[in-house]
Design a protein that fits this description.
Layout lengths: L1 E2 L4 E2 L6 H8 L5 H13 L5 H15 L2 H5 L13 H6 L9 H15 L6 H8 L4 H23 L2 H4 L6
Helix pairs in contact: 1-2, 2-8, 3-6, 3-8, 6-8
């Protein structure tokens, strides 16, 4: 199978994600996959703020798979239309302060990290602990890096995540 746009050749019968993330880079790929998995399994952030930040990064990255994905916790996901609310985070009435700030921080982290100012920190610290902000920032870093990797190599439109 040839994956566009990079033209990667994936051997027949091999899952594209497993091939690119594992076989092509066996020293780095599995470690990256464990980090990516930890973001979902070990987060202490609430589902709505987690998804607002994750979806805002997916929208910025242009990762098709990530935009379609919805994180599930204990059988719950965010409501239909949540992705549209994330795009309109500035004006939507669907978000509480933490959720709106998560979307804003995700956008600024991805597009203007040099412009993160005292005003944003003050607003974030009024609703999040330092530990939560470090955790959120690590999640953002994971989504930016791996969502862009998947998009650049065409993996976001070529496949789904492999089963665990």
């Amino acid at each position: 199978m040839k994956i566009e746009p990079a033209g990667l050749e994936v051997p027949d019968g091999t899952h594209p994600i497993m091939y690119v993330w594992g076989e092509l880079v066996p020293g780095i790929g599995p470690a990256a996959a464990r980090f990516s998995q930890a973001v979902y399994e070990d987060t202490t952030l609430g589902l709505r703020e987690f998804e607002a930040a994750r979806l805002r990064i997916a929208q910025i990255n242009g990762c098709l798979f990530c935009q379609d994905w919805r994180t599930e916790r204990d059988g719950e996901t965010v409501e239909d239309g949540f992705d549209a609310a994330v795009e309109a985070w500035r004006t939507t009435d669907a978000f509480d302060d933490r959720t709106r700030l998560a979307a804003e921080y995700a956008e600024r982290f991805a597009l203007d990290h040099h412009g993160i100012d005292r005003d944003l920190w003050d607003r974030l610290l009024a609703h999040y602990t330092h530990a939560e902000l470090v955790e959120l920032s690590m999640c953002l870093g994971s989504w930016i890096a791996f969502g862009r990797l998947n998009h650049v190599f065409g993996l976001d439109s070529a496949c789904t995540l492999p089963p665990r």
